[in-house]
Write a structure and sequence with these properties.
The protein is α/β, with parallel strands linked by helices. It has two domains: 29-121 and 220-255, Periplasmic binding protein-like II (D-Maltodextrin-Binding Protein, domain 2); 125-214, Periplasmic binding protein-like II (D-Maltodextrin-Binding Protein, domain 2, 3-Layer(aba) Sandwich), CATH 3.40.190. 39% of the residues lie in helices and 25% in strands. The protein contains nine helices and 14 strands. Strands 1, 5, 6, 7, 8 and 14 form a six-stranded mixed β-sheet that branches. Strands 11-10-12-9-13 form a five-stranded mixed β-sheet, sandwiched between helices. It has a three-stranded antiparallel β-sheet with strand order 2-3-4. A hairpin with a 2-residue loop joins strand 3 (52-55) and strand 4 (58-60). The protein is elongated and about 60 Å long.
Length: 256
Protein backbone atom coordinates (compact mmCIF):
# COMPACT_ATOMS: atom_id res chain seq x y z
CA UNK A 1 0.00 0.00 0.00
CA UNK A 2 1.40 3.46 -0.90
CA UNK A 3 2.78 5.46 2.00
CA UNK A 4 0.29 8.30 1.39
CA UNK A 5 -2.63 5.85 1.60
CA UNK A 6 -1.26 4.40 4.84
CA UNK A 7 -0.94 7.89 6.27
CA UNK A 8 -4.52 8.70 5.25
CA UNK A 9 -5.85 5.55 6.90
CA UNK A 10 -3.88 6.24 10.09
CA UNK A 11 -5.18 9.82 10.28
CA UNK A 12 -8.73 8.62 9.60
CA UNK A 13 -8.47 5.95 12.31
CA UNK A 14 -7.13 8.53 14.78
CA UNK A 15 -9.97 10.93 13.94
CA UNK A 16 -12.55 8.18 14.48
CA UNK A 17 -10.95 7.22 17.80
CA UNK A 18 -11.01 10.84 18.97
CA UNK A 19 -14.66 11.15 17.98
CA UNK A 20 -15.49 8.01 19.96
CA UNK A 21 -13.63 9.34 23.00
CA UNK A 22 -15.50 12.62 22.70
CA UNK A 23 -18.83 10.81 22.60
CA UNK A 24 -18.15 8.35 25.45
CA UNK A 25 -18.44 10.81 28.37
CA UNK A 26 -21.90 11.84 27.16
CA UNK A 27 -23.23 8.26 27.18
CA UNK A 28 -25.39 7.93 30.31
CA UNK A 29 -24.48 5.12 32.71
CA UNK A 30 -26.57 1.96 32.53
CA UNK A 31 -28.07 1.17 35.95
CA UNK A 32 -28.81 -2.45 35.05
CA UNK A 33 -25.26 -3.01 33.87
CA UNK A 34 -23.88 -1.27 36.95
CA UNK A 35 -25.97 -3.25 39.45
CA UNK A 36 -27.28 -6.38 37.68
CA UNK A 37 -28.88 -7.83 40.83
CA UNK A 38 -31.19 -4.81 41.05
CA UNK A 39 -29.77 -4.06 44.50
CA UNK A 40 -26.71 -2.07 45.55
CA UNK A 41 -24.72 -4.45 47.74
CA UNK A 42 -22.69 -2.39 50.21
CA UNK A 43 -19.62 -3.73 51.97
CA UNK A 44 -18.91 -2.12 55.34
CA UNK A 45 -16.80 -2.81 58.41
CA UNK A 46 -19.18 -2.00 61.27
CA UNK A 47 -16.48 -1.64 63.91
CA UNK A 48 -15.56 2.01 63.44
CA UNK A 49 -18.09 4.35 65.05
CA UNK A 50 -19.41 6.87 64.27
CA UNK A 51 -18.97 5.77 60.64
CA UNK A 52 -20.42 2.31 61.17
CA UNK A 53 -21.37 0.21 64.17
CA UNK A 54 -23.44 -2.89 64.82
CA UNK A 55 -26.07 -2.01 67.45
CA UNK A 56 -27.61 -5.37 68.38
CA UNK A 57 -27.78 -6.48 64.78
CA UNK A 58 -28.78 -3.09 63.38
CA UNK A 59 -26.12 -1.28 61.36
CA UNK A 60 -25.92 2.42 62.13
CA UNK A 61 -23.55 5.29 61.44
CA UNK A 62 -22.53 7.94 58.95
CA UNK A 63 -21.45 5.42 56.30
CA UNK A 64 -24.71 3.49 56.66
CA UNK A 65 -26.78 6.64 56.19
CA UNK A 66 -24.56 7.83 53.34
CA UNK A 67 -24.90 4.51 51.49
CA UNK A 68 -28.68 4.67 51.88
CA UNK A 69 -28.76 8.25 50.56
CA UNK A 70 -26.60 7.34 47.55
CA UNK A 71 -28.86 4.37 46.79
CA UNK A 72 -31.96 6.60 46.96
CA UNK A 73 -30.41 9.00 44.47
CA UNK A 74 -29.64 6.10 42.13
CA UNK A 75 -33.11 4.64 42.65
CA UNK A 76 -32.24 1.16 43.91
CA UNK A 77 -32.60 -0.65 47.24
CA UNK A 78 -29.52 -1.26 49.35
CA UNK A 79 -28.22 -4.40 51.02
CA UNK A 80 -25.42 -4.25 53.59
CA UNK A 81 -22.70 -6.85 54.14
CA UNK A 82 -20.89 -6.46 57.46
CA UNK A 83 -17.31 -7.54 56.76
CA UNK A 84 -13.97 -7.39 58.51
CA UNK A 85 -11.83 -4.46 57.44
CA UNK A 86 -9.23 -6.79 55.92
CA UNK A 87 -11.87 -8.57 53.84
CA UNK A 88 -13.45 -5.50 52.28
CA UNK A 89 -11.42 -5.29 49.08
CA UNK A 90 -11.49 -9.06 48.55
CA UNK A 91 -15.29 -8.94 48.69
CA UNK A 92 -15.34 -6.06 46.21
CA UNK A 93 -12.95 -7.63 43.71
CA UNK A 94 -14.66 -11.04 43.87
CA UNK A 95 -18.06 -9.48 43.18
CA UNK A 96 -19.57 -10.32 46.56
CA UNK A 97 -20.38 -6.62 46.98
CA UNK A 98 -20.74 -3.78 44.48
CA UNK A 99 -19.54 -0.85 46.58
CA UNK A 100 -17.47 -0.24 49.72
CA UNK A 101 -18.64 2.55 52.02
CA UNK A 102 -16.45 2.14 55.08
CA UNK A 103 -14.39 5.25 55.93
CA UNK A 104 -11.80 4.16 53.37
CA UNK A 105 -8.76 6.35 52.74
CA UNK A 106 -7.85 6.64 49.07
CA UNK A 107 -5.15 4.00 48.65
CA UNK A 108 -2.91 4.24 45.58
CA UNK A 109 -1.86 0.61 46.05
CA UNK A 110 -5.47 -0.49 45.42
CA UNK A 111 -6.03 1.44 42.20
CA UNK A 112 -5.27 -1.47 39.87
CA UNK A 113 -8.48 -3.12 41.06
CA UNK A 114 -10.51 -0.35 42.68
CA UNK A 115 -11.71 3.08 41.67
CA UNK A 116 -12.58 5.74 44.21
CA UNK A 117 -15.27 8.36 44.28
CA UNK A 118 -14.49 11.93 45.16
CA UNK A 119 -13.94 12.35 48.89
CA UNK A 120 -16.95 12.70 51.17
CA UNK A 121 -14.99 13.42 54.38
CA UNK A 122 -11.54 14.72 55.30
CA UNK A 123 -10.02 13.13 58.39
CA UNK A 124 -6.78 15.05 58.14
CA UNK A 125 -5.01 16.56 61.12
CA UNK A 126 -6.35 19.87 62.43
CA UNK A 127 -4.61 22.50 64.52
CA UNK A 128 -7.12 23.54 67.17
CA UNK A 129 -7.03 26.69 69.29
CA UNK A 130 -9.45 28.13 71.83
CA UNK A 131 -11.72 30.77 70.35
CA UNK A 132 -10.71 34.26 71.42
CA UNK A 133 -7.15 33.24 72.20
CA UNK A 134 -4.18 34.77 70.43
CA UNK A 135 -4.08 33.55 66.85
CA UNK A 136 -2.29 30.23 66.50
CA UNK A 137 -1.34 28.94 63.08
CA UNK A 138 1.59 27.22 61.44
CA UNK A 139 3.27 30.60 60.80
CA UNK A 140 3.07 31.65 64.44
CA UNK A 141 4.16 28.71 66.57
CA UNK A 142 7.37 29.92 68.21
CA UNK A 143 7.06 29.67 71.97
CA UNK A 144 3.68 27.91 71.82
CA UNK A 145 2.64 24.84 73.80
CA UNK A 146 1.24 22.24 71.39
CA UNK A 147 -0.65 19.23 72.76
CA UNK A 148 -0.49 16.08 70.65
CA UNK A 149 -1.27 12.37 70.83
CA UNK A 150 1.89 10.55 71.85
CA UNK A 151 3.63 8.38 69.21
CA UNK A 152 1.22 9.35 66.42
CA UNK A 153 1.69 11.02 63.04
CA UNK A 154 1.43 14.37 64.83
CA UNK A 155 4.87 13.76 66.34
CA UNK A 156 6.71 13.90 63.01
CA UNK A 157 4.82 17.03 61.97
CA UNK A 158 5.65 18.73 65.24
CA UNK A 159 9.35 17.87 64.85
CA UNK A 160 9.27 19.57 61.43
CA UNK A 161 7.64 22.65 62.94
CA UNK A 162 10.23 22.73 65.71
CA UNK A 163 13.00 22.71 63.10
CA UNK A 164 11.35 25.62 61.28
CA UNK A 165 9.95 27.71 64.14
CA UNK A 166 12.43 26.99 66.89
CA UNK A 167 11.14 26.70 70.44
CA UNK A 168 7.83 24.85 70.44
CA UNK A 169 6.89 23.07 73.63
CA UNK A 170 5.68 19.55 72.85
CA UNK A 171 2.99 18.25 75.21
CA UNK A 172 2.37 14.53 74.50
CA UNK A 173 -0.78 12.80 75.74
CA UNK A 174 -2.03 9.24 75.56
CA UNK A 175 -5.21 10.11 73.62
CA UNK A 176 -6.43 12.94 71.36
CA UNK A 177 -9.14 13.73 73.92
CA UNK A 178 -6.49 14.32 76.57
CA UNK A 179 -4.64 16.70 74.24
CA UNK A 180 -7.88 18.60 73.66
CA UNK A 181 -8.55 18.62 77.43
CA UNK A 182 -5.20 20.35 77.91
CA UNK A 183 -6.20 23.01 75.38
CA UNK A 184 -9.66 23.52 76.87
CA UNK A 185 -8.23 23.84 80.40
CA UNK A 186 -5.61 26.38 79.33
CA UNK A 187 -2.65 24.04 79.74
CA UNK A 188 -1.79 24.26 76.01
CA UNK A 189 -2.00 26.97 73.36
CA UNK A 190 -3.11 24.56 70.63
CA UNK A 191 -3.76 20.89 69.97
CA UNK A 192 -2.92 18.88 66.88
CA UNK A 193 -5.38 15.99 66.42
CA UNK A 194 -7.30 14.17 63.69
CA UNK A 195 -10.54 15.73 62.50
CA UNK A 196 -12.81 12.91 63.72
CA UNK A 197 -11.42 13.12 67.26
CA UNK A 198 -11.81 16.90 67.23
CA UNK A 199 -15.40 16.85 65.98
CA UNK A 200 -16.48 14.17 68.45
CA UNK A 201 -14.80 16.01 71.32
CA UNK A 202 -16.46 19.27 70.36
CA UNK A 203 -19.81 17.52 69.94
CA UNK A 204 -19.67 16.37 73.55
CA UNK A 205 -18.79 19.86 74.83
CA UNK A 206 -21.19 22.24 73.14
CA UNK A 207 -20.29 25.09 75.46
CA UNK A 208 -16.63 25.07 74.44
CA UNK A 209 -15.88 27.28 71.45
CA UNK A 210 -12.76 26.66 69.39
CA UNK A 211 -11.27 27.30 65.98
CA UNK A 212 -9.41 24.89 63.72
CA UNK A 213 -7.48 24.70 60.48
CA UNK A 214 -6.55 21.65 58.42
CA UNK A 215 -2.87 20.77 58.39
CA UNK A 216 -3.08 17.55 56.36
CA UNK A 217 -5.58 15.88 54.05
CA UNK A 218 -6.83 12.33 54.67
CA UNK A 219 -9.83 11.86 52.35
CA UNK A 220 -12.40 9.12 52.86
CA UNK A 221 -14.06 7.90 49.67
CA UNK A 222 -16.36 5.21 48.29
CA UNK A 223 -14.61 2.33 46.49
CA UNK A 224 -15.92 0.43 43.47
CA UNK A 225 -14.47 -2.15 41.09
CA UNK A 226 -12.30 -0.44 38.54
CA UNK A 227 -14.01 -2.16 35.60
CA UNK A 228 -17.52 -1.04 36.66
CA UNK A 229 -17.49 2.43 35.14
CA UNK A 230 -21.29 2.66 35.07
CA UNK A 231 -21.49 2.14 38.83
CA UNK A 232 -18.77 4.73 39.43
CA UNK A 233 -20.62 7.31 37.32
CA UNK A 234 -23.89 6.68 39.16
CA UNK A 235 -22.29 6.87 42.60
CA UNK A 236 -20.31 9.99 41.71
CA UNK A 237 -23.43 11.72 40.37
CA UNK A 238 -25.33 10.77 43.53
CA UNK A 239 -22.57 12.16 45.75
CA UNK A 240 -22.52 15.40 43.78
CA UNK A 241 -26.28 15.76 44.23
CA UNK A 242 -25.97 15.10 47.98
CA UNK A 243 -23.34 17.83 48.22
CA UNK A 244 -25.42 20.26 46.18
CA UNK A 245 -28.63 19.81 48.17
CA UNK A 246 -26.86 19.91 51.55
CA UNK A 247 -27.74 16.33 52.50
CA UNK A 248 -24.10 15.22 52.80
CA UNK A 249 -23.35 18.08 55.20
CA UNK A 250 -26.45 17.19 57.23
CA UNK A 251 -25.43 13.54 57.46
CA UNK A 252 -21.94 14.47 58.67
CA UNK A 253 -23.34 16.94 61.22
CA UNK A 254 -25.73 14.27 62.50
CA UNK A 255 -22.89 11.91 63.42
CA UNK A 256 -19.90 14.22 63.94
Amino acid sequence: MPRRACHFLAVTALAIALCVLAILPSIPPDRQRAFPTGTIRIGVDASYPPFALDADGELRGLDIDLAAAVAREIGLPVQYRNLSFYGLYDALISGEVDVLVSALPIDAARMDDARYSSAYFNNGLVLVAADGAAAVDVKNLAGKRIAIEYASSTDSILHTWQADAGTIQRLPYELPDYALDALRLGQADAALVDNVSYRLYQRGRRGWVSTSQFITVDPYAIALRRDNHDAWQLVEAALEQLRANGELARLIANWL
